Every structure is written in structure tokens, then in C-alpha cells.
Amino acid sequence: MSTDRPKRAPDADAAPKRLHPLAHLMFGSRWLQLPLYVGLIVAQAVYVFQFWTELVHLVEAAFGNQDALRMLVDSVGYKADTTVEKLNETIIMLAVLALIDVVMISNLLIMVIVGGYETFVSRLHLEGHPDQPEWLDHVNASVLKVKLATAIIGISSIHLLKTFINVQNLNEKVLMWQTVIHVAFLLSALAIALTDKLLAHGHADKA
């Protein structure tokens, strides 16, 4: 009769391993990033205020408010040879694109705040929460980097579209440099995605 006892599985509720004081200090230094993410939340609130300010100006200008129209024209960067006296299609498109731009930057902030905190600071313990973002299930430093690059390309595309709509009021140098910068963002994102793909294949081959 065998007297061997079955090995017990490690207890999931067991106390975490005690770290060396230096290791504990270095690992605990991640909490220094917390004020940075709180600051990004404040920046998010500023963008919300900016969005509603621009939206109110757009609605007031649509009803003929000249002061709101002037502020809207200045904010979207619309230029004309004569004084703009009423809202036109170009100004509306530029204003709407500016609002979309704010939304996309806000989405980028959320991605950095939630994904960055989850990856580099501490778990948010959102498992099972009905509003848990789908992309958060597989987020890591590499995925976050690619998503940020993609979001930046989207924001750059909005800026470039605004330039094309208002192209008759801009010089060729501005148009050329914005196009070059957008292409540089595209190439950078492709390089990041290709690098991550090669690294993933390298890890898979070693496994």
C-alpha cells in the first residue's frame, strides 16, 4: 500500500511572496505614475468642456448669432477674402470635423488612461463587468503601442481632411507638410506593427 500523499495545489489565496526591500521599492515606484493618469483625466475633462463650447457656438451660429459665428470661424481656422456673415457648408464641415477630432483625442486619452494603468500600474479588476472594454482583455505594452499609433493616424487623417476642405484658403507649403507628416505617421505605425509581429513570431518559435 502506497503511503504517498497527493501534492496540494498552490493556494490561490495564499499571501504574496515577500519581496526584498530594494525590489519592493523599485516595484512600488510604479505608483508614481498615478498622478500622471489623474492628470490625463483632468485633460479629458478639458476636452469635454471644449467639445460642448464648440457645439454651442455651432448651434448659435446656425440660428444667426454673429458673435458665435466669428468665434466658430476663428476656432476652425476658416479664412475668406470677405467677412463671413452666415454659416456655410464649408464652415459646418470644418466645425463637425473639429468635434470629431476632439472625440478621437478623447478616445486616445481613455485608451492611454485605462490601458496604461492596467498594463504598467495595477489591475483594475474589471472581469465580469458589463462595461469592460473588449480590447482590455488582451491589452499589453505591444498591443497598446499599436492601438495608439492607429489612433494617431486617425487624428492626423481628420486634420488632413480639414486642410483639404479649406485648401483654397491655405498655401501649398502647409498642405505639403501636413501630407508628409501624415505619411510619416503611416510609415511609423506600419514599422511598429511589423516589429511587434516579428517579435511575436520569435517568441512563438522559442516556445
Description:
There is one protein chain. By secondary structure, this protein is an all-alpha fold. It has one domain. It is built from six helices and no strands. Helix 4 runs antiparallel to helix 5 and helix 5 packs antiparallel against helix 6. It is elongated.
Q: Which structural traits does this protein have?
A:
mainly alpha
Q: Roughly how many Å is the radius of gyration?
A: 25 Å
The secondary structure category is mainly alpha
Query: What is the typical, i.e. mean, pLDDT?
Result: 79
Strand content: under 5%
Domain module tally: 1
The level of helicity is 55-70%
**How many H/I helices?**
6
**Spans with pLDDT under 50 lasting ≥5 residues?**
1-10
Number of strands: 0
Sum up the overall morphology in one term: elongated
Main β sheet profile: none
Distance between the termini: 40 Å
- The succession of helices and strands, N to C, reads HHHHHH
